[in-house]
Specification:
Strand content: 15-25%
Largest sheet: 7 strands, mixed
Mean pLDDT: 78
Number of domains: 1
Shape: elongated
Structural class: alpha+beta
Low-confidence stretches: none
């Protein structure tokens, strides 16, 4: 597995949805770039069932249409013609949710209180919330067995590197939630799909600085005729 640089762009961009989708796509492409990476059911060697399922790039960030043997892309690049020619992995972002961690989303404890016991808001203090999200990787195959093999390959890889992913992606938590049940994707072309769901949590922090005086009063007078 190829990790991110020590000073990651995530430090400035934050965990933007399309960036995380791109990370998962890159991670899977790197894994399927050589048969030496592939394993199934914990066997640490290339197995015959998957050794031909290799992703080959064109040097421009896309798959080489002639050489690649598996399609790996974001779900918005889904193309029915592609999955008729080869198996595929499609990455889709699910919903993001926020979870409050402290009063007024503050990061400090022992906050000041007024005479009535209410917590006083401090201008410029840092705030934080937990952002909970997940991605689903759809493993598409021409048969149920093929989809199951791809699903377990992706599952084993993500579980094995979950701690590395948590650290490299600057996440508070990362885990593989489930491998969903086998389903028929399209009865016409007879394609099957196994979803693999990854869940994570991030703790973004921010502060709001005052750049102009706050509006204290609003006076309204009648204008003389």
């Amino acid at each position: 597995m190829i990790g991110l640089a020590p000073v990651s762009s995530l430090c400035t961009t934050g965990h933007v949805a399309n960036i995380l989708t791109g990370v998962f796509v890159r991670l899977l492409r790197e894994h399927f770039a050589t048969a030496l990476n592939l394993e199934y059911n914990g066997v640490n060697e290339a197995v015959q069932e998957l050794e031909g399922y290799l992703w080959v790039g064109d040097g421009q960030g896309n798959a080489d249409a002639e050489k690649t043997r598996i399609q790996i892309d974001a779900v918005w690049k889904y193309n029915a013609q592609d999955i008729q020619r080869r198996p595929a992995l499609y990455v889709k972002r699910n919903s993001f949710q926020t979870q409050r961690l402290a009063i007024r989303d503050g990061m400090t404890s022992n906050a000041k209180r007024d005479s009535e016991g209410k917590v006083q808001a401090v201008r410029g203090e840092y705030k934080t919330v937990a952002v909970l999200g997940s991605h689903t990787i759809f493993c598409v195959g021409g048969s149920g067995a093929e989809a199951e093999l791809l699903g377990m390959e992706v599952f084993n890889h993500l579980v094995g590197f979950s701690q590395v992913l948590r650290e490299d992606l600057k996440l508070h938590r990362f885990m593989v939630n489930e491998v969903g049940e086998l389903a028929v994707l399209d009865e016409y072309v007879e394609r099957f799909v196994v979803p693999v769901v990854c869940a994570y949590a991030a703790l973004p922090a921010w502060r709001t600085d005052v750049v102009a005086p706050w509006l204290k009063t609003l006076e309204i007078d009648l204008l003389p005729k």
